[in-house]
């Protein structure tokens, strides 16, 4: 007798499950599942969608002082604001000349060689961003441009001494 009682009155504990019985006479549920709230940053994501990843990273990884991508060492203040080595040194020297304490231009926290640290992750990320060779317009990682210009670029005059020497000694010139 207990088994027949259980099959006559099915109980569903989940209001959104497909097994739940409908409470309306036409078979439709009066309770619809809750809809998710739209993301508040969806508009900014859509705007950034048109930009390339490299362009977005350039804006994120740039120096907060000169607004250029650092070409070498990157320092950060205690709050994480980035500065290239040239700007960092300039800020420290300028403060020393004025007999003031050096501060981060973004958050005004104190900066010094002891308080700031290098950001190796940003240095590595910047070195892997693509850049065009100024001579042949080939896309290369930033870390490989100097070697390309001096050793491989056919349009560059930087390695012209070696090119002329190869021509004078009749050494074969191989593309590397």
Automatic annotation (TrEMBL):
PANTHER family: CYSTEINE AND HISTIDINE-RICH PROTEIN 1, ZINC FINGER TRAF-TYPE-CONTAINING PROTEIN 1. Belongs to the ZFTRAF1 family. PROSITE patterns: ZF_RING_2. Residues 1-46 are annotated as: Disordered. Residues 32-46 have a biased composition (Basic and acidic residues). It is found in: Cytoplasm. SUPFAM superfamilies: RING/U-box. Keywords: Cytoplasm, Metal-binding, Zinc, Zinc-finger. Its main location: cytoplasm. Residues 1-31 have a biased composition (Polar residues). This is Putative cysteine and histidine-rich protein 1. One of its GO terms (molecular function) is zinc ion binding. The keyword Zinc-finger applies. InterPro entries: Sina-like_RING, ZFTRAF1, Znf_RING, Znf_RING/FYVE/PHD.
